[in-house]
TrEMBL record:
It comes from the Bacteria. This is Redox-sensing transcriptional repressor Rex. The gene is rex. It is found in: Cytoplasm. Signal peptide: none annotated. One of its GO terms (cellular component) is cytoplasm. Transmembrane segments: none annotated. InterPro entries: CoA-bd (IPR003781), NAD(P)-bd_dom_sf (IPR036291), Rex_bacilli-type (IPR058203), Rex_DNA-bd_C_dom (IPR009718), Tscrpt_rep_Rex (IPR022876), WH-like_DNA-bd_sf (IPR036388), WH_DNA-bd_sf (IPR036390). Modulates transcription in response to changes in cellular NADH/NAD(+) redox state. It comes from Jeotgalibacillus malaysiensis. One of its GO terms (biological process) is response to redox state.
C-alpha cells in the first residue's frame, strides 16, 4: 500500500468495501455519476461522512454533478486489491462457523474460505459448502502449504488464545475474532473483534436511549 493510501483514517477504510459494492452495482447498471445523497441513501452512511471519506482519496466531486463512478471504482479496485483473492481459514465449525462456510463471501469480495478446522473428530474429514474441514492437528501443515493470510475464529472463548498463538507462529496476518475473548497479538498482526452479543446489546441500548434520531449532522457542502 502506498504512503498516500496509508493516510486514510481507519474508520474510512472500514467503509470502503461498502462503497465499493454499491458502486460496482451502479456501474453495471450503466450509471456514470452519483451524488453523495444517492450514495448515502443506499449505504446508510450520512452524506457529510461520505464527502469527507471521499476527500481523503482525492475524489472531490462537483456540486450538481456528483462523483465520477469510473474514477471511484478504479480507486477502490486498487486500494482493496480486488484482483487478488485473499485466502481465509475458519476455525470452529459450530453454528456460526457453518453459516460462514455456506456463505463464503465470494459474492461480495475476492476473499475465499479455503479450509476449516475443528477439534471435534466427527467434523474433521467432512466438507461444508465445498470447504474441507480438517482436524486441529493438521493446522500447521495445511495453513503453511496454502498461503493463508486471514483467519476467522468461531470457537468458544476458552481455546481462542491458544489457537491465536498457533496462528501467530504461522505468520497469519489478520484475525476476525467472533469469540468474546480479548486476544493478545503482536503489533504486526491485525485483529478485529466482532462480539455479536455486544453489538446486539449496544443496538438495543441506542434504540432505547436515542431512538432512530440521526446523531451526525451535515457540515460539509452538499455534492
Ligand atoms: P455446535 O452446536 O456445533 O456445538 P456452537 O457454535 O454452539 O456449535 P461452540 O461451543 O461455540 O458451539 O463451538 C464452536 C465450534 O468450535 C464447535 O464446532 C467446536 O467443536 C469447536 N471447538 C471447540 N473447541 C475447539 C478447539 N480447541 N479447537 C478447534 N475447534 C474447537
Amino acid at each position: 500500500m502506498s504512503q498516500e493510501q496509508m493516510k486514510i483514517p481507519q474508520a474510512t477504510a472500514k467503509r470502503l468495501p461498502l462503497y465499493y459494492r454499491f458502486l460496482k452495482n451502479l456501474h453495471s447498471s450503466g450509471k456514470q455519476r452519483v451524488s453523495s445523497k444517492e450514495l448515502s441513501d443506499a449505504v446508510k452512511v450520512d452524506s457529510a461522512t461520505i464527502r469527507r471519506d471521499f476527500s481523503y482519496f482525492g475524489a472531490l466531486g462537483k456540486k450538481g454533478y456528483g462523483y465520477n463512478v469510473e474514477y471511484l471504482l478504479s480507486f477502490f479496485r486498487k486500494t482493496l486489491d480486488q484482483d487478488e483473492t485473499t485466502k481465509v481459514v475458519l476455525i470452529g465449525v459450530g453454528n456460526l462457523g457453518t453459516a460462514f462456510l455456506h456463505y463464503n463471501f465470494l459474492k461480495n469480495n475476492n476473499t475465499k474460505i479455503e479450509m476449516a478446522f475443528d477439534a471435534d473428530p466427527k467434523k474433521a474429514g467432512t466438507s461444508i459448502g465445498e470447504v474441507p474441514v480438517y482436524a486441529m492437528d493438521d493446522l500447521e501443515e495445511k495453513v503453511k502449504e496454502s498461503n493463508i493470510e486471514v483467519a476467522i475464529l468461531t470457537v468458544p472463548a476458552g481455546p481462542a488464545q491458544g489457537i491465536t498463538d498457533r496462528l501467530i507462529d504461522l505468520k497469519v496476518k489478520g484475525i476476525l475474532n467472533f469469540t468474546p475473548a480479548r486476544l493478545s497479538v503482536p503489533e504486526h498482526m491485525r485483529i478485529h473483534h466482532i462480539d455479536l452479543a455486544v453489538e446486539l446489546q449496544s443496538l438495543i441500548y441506542f434504540l432505547k436511549n436515542y431512538g432512530t434520531d440521526d446523531v451526525e449532522t451535515s457540515q460539509l457542502e452538499e455534492i
